[in-house]
Sequence to fold (146 residues):
Amino acid sequence: MKKVLILTALFFAGSAVSAQAGTINPGESTECNNANSITVEVANIPNAATEKFGYTSNDRGTGSLVVWKSANATTVPLTLGPADDNRSLNTTDHGKTGIEVMGSMGRNKVVLTKQTAFSRGDSIGDIAGLVRFTNTGTNPVSIACN
Fold:
């Protein structure tokens, strides 16, 4: 009985240490527990679109995640698209509509910061407790719990 108890304790201790941060590949998850800030970053992968519709095998370098927060059992999507653009399809110009770029198109990194006395628990701003990240995209994403 003591062996089972010790093995169970070691399993949970190992899980808590190994799942704190790192790079998660598509389909993998990691989590942060009571972090003061969480840095989410995708590498600057070039947008390798070679045809008129802009489809690529690497989803234009985008990082897509689902964020689950234990504070209120809320799931929030999070997308980082540093190489995305605002082209739209037009039958004559094949994506170049003449619309000028308005600001930047995406970021490769965001930092989620703990909010004290955060009253709106359904927002991404509430990172108290356990926060789990699942990579739902095609590119690896780095998570750092601070």
Observations:
- Confidence is low (pLDDT under 50) at residues 13-19.
- The chain has one domain: 21-85+103-145.
- The chain has one helix and eight strands.
